[in-house]
Amino acid sequence: MERRTFIAGAAAAGAVAVVGGTALGAAAEPNQTASTAGHIRGATAITKVFGDGQKLIAVAVEYDRDIDGSALSTSTFAVTGRTVTKVYTNGAAALAERGRDGRFVVVELSPDDDSAALWVTQQGGGGTSTGSPSPSPSDSSGSGGPGAGGPKVGDSTPGGTIVAATASVVQKDTVRTTHGARYAATGTTLTTSAVVNLVVDDFQQFTFDDPATGQTLRYNLFIPKDYDPRKRYPLVLFMHDASVVNVATEGPLVQGLGAVCWAGAEDQAKHESFVLAPEYGSVVVDDDYEPSTLFDATANLVQAVTEQYSIDENRRYTTGQSMGAMMSLGLNIRYPDLFAAAFIVAGQWPADQAAPLAGKKLWIVVSQDDDKSYTGENAITKAIEDAGTQVATAVWDGQSTAAQFAADVRNLKAQKAPVNYASFLTGTTVSSGSGTSAHMGTWHIAYTIPGIRDWLMRQSK
Known about the structure:
Elements: H1 15-19, E1 33-34, E2 40-50, E3 53-67, E4 77-79, E5 84-90, E6 102-109, E7 119-122, E8 128-130, E9 160-162, E10 168-171, E11 175-176, E12 182-183, E13 190-191, E14 194-197, E15 203-209, E16 216-222, E17 233-239, H2 251-254, H3 265-270, E18 274-279, H4 294-308, E19 311-321, H5 323-334, E20 341-345, E21 361-367, H6 371-386, E22 391-396, H7 402-413, E23 419-424, H8 438-446, H9 450-457
Parallel strand pairs: 1-12, 2-14, 17-18, 17-19, 19-20, 20-21, 21-23, 22-23
Antiparallel strand pairs: 2-3, 3-6, 4-10, 5-6, 7-8, 7-9, 10-13, 11-12, 15-16, 16-18
């Protein structure tokens, strides 16, 4: 499959022709300094998705010869507006734990830089922030009560924007080839002209025309690398929050980890699976809990993908954040045989409709200071317990280390309940001054916890 560069901006076009388009000259003799510009073939931006969205985290500069990485340092290159954290050589435009000699010099950048973010969302006050969407249907910023404080069903106003992944890099110090030639520092600025989107590029984009509802759904699908139609595979459905409505098809892949975490190499090595991530053109459900026909179209999409590929109907899973969490709950109620288990992140549904959830396997994560979702999930889990189903509960610190979260997951699983309910302590899902609400901070953390994903993938009907 051809590498997609959907996040590359128009400003990057033609950059190689300006900087590296001259005919390559003969290599300089050892210990002689060569004219550098003719030896640079181009630069590639490298992006990665984090809990709060996609960020530009490296630039790979390509030369015409293998470069000696032993003399490189963080001062060898400068990237406009960014903090260089690591510089090494590689044989491809790719990240590496340890560098090896090759034609590419990889310049890693701090993901904490203000200009690193490629997923930018609008705030209620009109400002911008990264990874902090405008109020989703279940956001606690509303005035309370059904239908208050968030976008309404059918609203197609995008809450976020995908920023072009471009960077400008300058070679500040001499670079040496593995054969001893020296490429002198240059004041010429090189603009990236290609993009590698880690994990995101492994998804394919399709359109589903649903004859039952008349709706059209754009969607992203990850197909296991060594897909064998003779085998049966699990499928994970991820549904985004309201900030991602009506953006590019790839929006659910770049807004956070909810979709891409299942498709990473480590997860696929443990749990080879399909990952399905629809992009909704409008809000599907709000706090009145009366979904649009996109709700049923989603169930039909899951069935259509199941029939097209070798999907195990006993190992289909659903997950989502905010609006997507609400849809996951609602779909489990309306279509009780569709999914084997669900991972619910910062969402709710009317408790008086929740009785069918007593027969489901659920892992629920919510923040205690996300008033609407926390109150809603407390009511749902009470309804589940009243129906005779055990609910395992725990209170977690959202600032825990990976090791602490792993222990938290083990302790909750040890209760051996079909429903697991973890709430984050008040104030632990947001950083001071970040502008992010506890509601949205929940999914910045929840999808980073591998143990929950492992639990989900081990469930079956």
